[in-house]
Amino acid sequence: MAPPQQVEDEAFVTLATSDTYALGSLVWGQSLRRVGTTRKLVVMITPGVSHGIRQQLGSVFDLLEVVDVLDSRDTINLGLLERPDLGVTFTKFHVWRLTQFKKCVFMDSDTMVLQNIDELFEREEFSAAPDPGWPDCFNSGVFVLQPSLQTYQNLLAFAMTVGSFDGGDQGLLNLYFKDWAYTDIQKHLPFIYNVVSQAFYSYLPALKQFGANIKVVHFIGPVKPWMHKYNTATGEVIPEPGTGHHGTFLQQWWNIFMELVQPKMDPTYLSGLAGELASLKLDASPQQPMEAVPEHERRERWERGQVDYLGEDSFQKIQERIDSTLQSGPAQAQPKPVDKSKGAVPKASRKHVRK
Ligand code: UDP
Ligand code: MN
């Protein structure tokens, strides 16, 4: 069968302002390649991304677009969110400047694609999925937009005059596209296009029922997949407690990272966490990334109980964790330490978990 036709004027776009977020971008890009996207892959980077990582980004992405950092400088509201780092997320607005494309899907670099999502290009600006924290707001980790210099200017003017109610891009975009909640259901992307971590502990029966449909996982919060520890002896991730990240999805992220990203990283050119991760040496052979299974087959397997990446075991584990959390407080919910653990992340570099 001939490979599907590539589409030149539509793109998936992400953003990285640092080498560590660039690692997320690399895994995200590989996750989209794996599911055979026919659209262009673009990463917007700021001058803070090192030369070493840029070269690697160049081998995965069709276009590296260097942009300036836009900072909300809104320390009061960001303080409310306990995420002073998020001012930088205004930099996302540069995606509206990519006018060589008719339509773009922006995705955070802490997302991972499990099934082909090219159908998102059938949606119009501004389409996004609800945020479970306040479902009349959308989550700005995945959205469909139409590049336009006019919209870009309007967003900047809006940022100066109105601002953001949470200090980040999500609080601004929800004010700017304020009709989203009430006017056009076509602009509500189904939740499966942006399944944020909270869903895993707030509605477990829904996860059991609909988990096979998930197309995009979003590792929200201050602790990102690359900050969890990884056991190089067993090839298993050791989830940090309290992040709400699903162990099976984290493992999937690390499988892609260890197989397709990490072997090409050069420790001589990288510093900080990226340098540390570049130096990881796997004692075990890496776990294979999950093969991309066609949608109908995935559903059939799910219904037969043959669940590959959200298996019965992992449900049991979550359930056990939830039970033990309820019985004895969050401290008890820690996974058992693994003896041969070679954690990649020094304690000092881990951010605190948002309560
Ligand atoms: N981002 C970045 N550098 C930063 C913070 C954020 O490049 O220091 C980009 C990155 O693409 C990230 C997105 O902005 O995925 C949104 O931030 P984040 O995912 O950390 O927010 P959350 O989803 O946790 O609210
Ligand atoms: Mn995110």
Total DSSP E strands: 11
Query: Which class of secondary structure composition applies to the elements?
Result: alpha/beta
Total count of helical runs of at least 4 residues: 11
What ligands can be seen in this structure?
uridine-5'-diphosphate, manganese (II) ion
First CA to last CA: what distance?
51 Å
How does this model look, in words?
- The protein has 355 residues and is an alpha/beta fold.
- The protein is built from 11 helices and 11 strands.
- It has helices spanning 19-34, 51-60, 75-81, 149-161, 169-176, 198-202, 204-210, 247-261, 272-278, 295-304, 312-328; strands at residues 10-16, 40-45, 63-66, 103-107, 111-113, 127-131, 134-145, 195-196, 216-218, 229-231, 236-238.
- The chain has a 6-stranded mixed beta sheet with strand order 3-2-1-4-7-6, with helices on both faces. The chain has a 3-stranded mixed beta sheet with strand order 5-9-8. It has a two-stranded antiparallel sheet with strand order 10-11.
- Helix 1 runs parallel beside helix 2 and helix 1 crosses helix 8.
- The termini are far apart.
- The structure holds uridine-5'-diphosphate and manganese (II) ion.
- Residues 108, 110, 141, 218, 220 line the site of manganese (II) ion.
